[in-house]
Write a structure and sequence with these properties.
The chain is an alpha+beta fold and 203 residues long. It is 28% helix and 29% strand. It has helices at residues 9-60, 173-176; strands at 64-70, 76-86, 99-108, 113-116, 130-133, 145-151, 167-172, 187-191, 198-202. A hairpin with a 5-residue loop joins β1 and β2 (76-86).
């Protein structure tokens, strides 16, 4: 009669220890891959929204804005939307207009992805982007600070044409606290201020 040999407690603990060591080696790499995927997906979605806003402005012959809504800190933006604008005929010089309607649903970046304001030249003071308080957005976003840049019926934008490289910089929230040399894989969306054409690249 054959005897079945059971595992000893020491053998079981040894196997658990090996599994835990392997997990500790694999999980950081998996997290990095997941974050890189989230950055690419968010970047592609924002680029598609900017292109959609450009097409909307040209085909409907109406000024359209891409709106970036502030996150939990003043240095980050965590939501993006497209806003249709009807200007006040009595005051056409007013860039805010008198009527704003959110087009489609607001896109909220997946945690922990943010748009980092200090590293995004599009948010610099002379970039041609307008800072204001949210009104055409879901109630949860009302009252937050937002930044708009406009796309016009002729295909141009409100961005400063003299700016050498207007761009958005997407990264994870922990990366935003690191120095530029320590950031692992930021994603950059470069926007041509004249044609609104986009270039996406990731370090």
């Amino acid at each position: 009669m054959t005897r079945l040999r059971a595992f000893t407690l020491i053998e079981i603990l040894l196997v658990i220890a090996i599994v835990l060591i392997l997990l500790s080696l694999v999980l950081p790499a998996m997290r990095s891959v997941l974050e890189s995927y989230q950055l690419r997906q968010a970047g592609s979605r924002i680029a598609a929204m900017i292109e959609e806003a450009r097409i909307e402005a040209v085909t409907m012959q109406k000024v359209t804005a891409v709106r970036f809504i502030q996150g939990s800190k003043e240095t980050e933006f965590s939501s993006v939307g497209i806003v249709r604008i009807t200007f006040d005929p009595s005051n056409p010089a007013d860039p805010g207009g008198n009527k704003e309607v959110l087009h489609g649903r607001l896109f909220r970046l997946p945690e922990p992805v943010i748009i980092d304001a200090p590293r995004s030249s599009i948010f610099e003071a002379d970039s041609g982007i307008v800072s204001k308080t949210v009104d055409a957005a879901p109630a949860a976003e009302a009252g937050k600070t937002c930044r708009d840049f406009y796309l016009f019926p002729n295909g141009t934008t409100s961005l400063n044409a003299r700016s050498p490289n207007p761009h958005l910089c997407l990264m994870t929230r922990p990366d935003a606290l690191r120095s530029d040399a320590e950031i692992r894989n930021p994603l950059v969306i470069s926007i041509d201020p004249v044609t609104s054409r986009l270039t996406i690249y990731q370090r």
